[in-house]
Amino acid sequence: MTLAIVDQAERAELAAGTGLTPQAVSKILARLIDDGLVEEVGRRQGARGKPATLYRLRSEKAHAIGIHAGRTDIKGVRVDLGGNVLDTIATPMPAQFTPAQLIDGIASTVEKLVSPQSDSTNPEIVGVGVALPGPVDRTTGVVQGFRWWRDPAATPLLDALTHRLGRHTVMDLSINAALELTAWQRGDQMTDTLYALLDRGVGGALWIGGRLHRGAHMSAGEFGHLVIEAGGPECECGRRGCVEAVQQRALAEGDIARAAAAVATGIANALHIVDVPGVVWSGSDLEAHPEAYAAALAAELQRTLAGGAAYTIHRAVPAEVPHEDCPADLVATGAAVMVLESVYGIPARPGESLDQSLTPEPAEITSR
Ligand SMILES: [Zn+2]
């Protein structure tokens, strides 16, 4: 959504930024203006031709809530229509909590983020995005086999949350939410990318051809479960010697260099298969030792077939936030952005149905 990234733009820039035709951009703009979400803010005279109308996204008109349900706490953010973080909150969770406790925790976190609105703009809350470590089926919203849950049965969490919250709710893996945030921020600058989330574990995801590449079983890009040490430490997934298991063992032993080397080997192995030009990473483990991880990855990529210079590496860091003691969690922010995309998302490439990606249903649209 190009308007979310730039302050204001004219129609031709929006068309170039989204890959849509100017006619399609006009239709979308008309609908957003009808909804009160975009306004005309003036005209700009170019070197030749008629002056172009400038449009601005009214970010203050609609907000979304993002939730990151982790193993030890629930982090929440409230964002405006431009994806800017306005408020943050963290709720601690008991060890080995049940699905019912998780639903209670998410509901109370959402309630706290929704209630304290004293401003006069009275924004609409368009929905809640929930991100979990997995495994979660994004389409059915069924969670099954969390090893940190006491209940091993399949839980229709999305249905339960939608009912409890009474709001439009979307759900996805934490790693995918983090990747969606990067794609949202970069817009058409987003290249094919391997994302690594180092946050009490090793998550991986792929962005290929302008979208998340999920794979047949929603686990594409999960390089944390590539085996790098035959017969190595047991992994949560049931195999031995996975990147994640080796990294977690090294961290427990205080061997940061070994932990970083395990992750670097995993990323290099994954790049040999998918050969994407970009690597983006984030997470608390990375934030604790950024130099060690960067050095290990640079050294490892140097030894790949393409060589280290063939890849761009970017560390995603949390945005400036209202509360210094409660930073804007990247996964929670990504979950909120997922909501904005599900409601107002404009496809990044031409040829996709606009009507499926825009709600509410199109009313009368006048061509401009
Ligand atoms: Zn594993």
From TrEMBL:
Positions of transmembrane segments: none
Name of the protein in its database record: Putative ROK family protein
InterPro entries: ArsR-like_HTH, ATPase_NBD, ROK, ROK_cs, WH-like_DNA-bd_sf, WH_DNA-bd_sf
Family: Belongs to the ROK (NagC/XylR) family.
Species of origin: Nostocoides jenkinsii Ben 74
Signal peptide bounds: none
PROSITE patterns, A to Z: ROK
